[in-house]
# Entry
Amino acid sequence: MAPKITDTLPRRTSVELPQKPEEQELARKRLEQAAIESDLADRELQSASLRAELGAFERQYLHFVGSRYAELDELKAQVAERIAQEQPDNPDRQVSAREARAVANQSKSVAGDQATEKPRAFQPSQNMKHLYREVARRIHPDLTSDRDDRAKRQQLMAEANQAYERGDNEQLARILANYEHRPEAVLGDDAGAELIRAIRKISQAKGRMAEIEAGLQDLMRSDLYHLKVRVDQAEQHGRDILKEMTGKVESQIAQARQYLGLPPQVNA
# Structure
């Protein structure tokens, strides 16, 4: 039986055309972009967590220690003012009284009104950290070159930071969902344009990484950070530094009240 003509013809094979240079470069840049955006999200989470932790610690400090210092400075001002009244011709005493009053007013302004409820430490759940990281990875304003989109992202990141500090998981999820489902998220352009956008996004992300690193270094050089580290380390050995500090200040408060003839303070 003679073979069919179609059997003698070579079979066609599917041959993939080689990628254009710009397509190859785009693929590499997209991998680089994904990696740095992931790193940026991690650093944003670290920065937001440290700021929230220091904010919570500062509130605890002001609640337990700062308010006591404000009270002590007020009593010191009253002592200085009483001595100044007893020695009206002594200019040094008059100056000391004015300076003590200024310190007391400053302490009162810093401490603010003493909270009736004990401040809580910042303890985000793993789910909250994951949500914040996703928000930072997808919405961060430094990952876009579009002016309008950047403004929108800045607003959303500010809202996300506030929600993270409050421990509001639902708000973080809403921010992410609303941004992801916006109509403007649907894009489509040629490889050359996509390559340029990827390169710019990488540059923006690197710039933001440098800013975060500088901000973290500033935070870790602050007195508040060093005090928190000291308190945390002491807590691991069973010591409560804030309680010890409070006790010392209350002892000085008792001495000042005794000098002024005020009744002993009864702590709740």
Notes: The radius of gyration is 31 Å. The chain is about 75% helix and 0% strand. Residues 21-86 form the longest helix (66 residues). The mean pLDDT is 84.
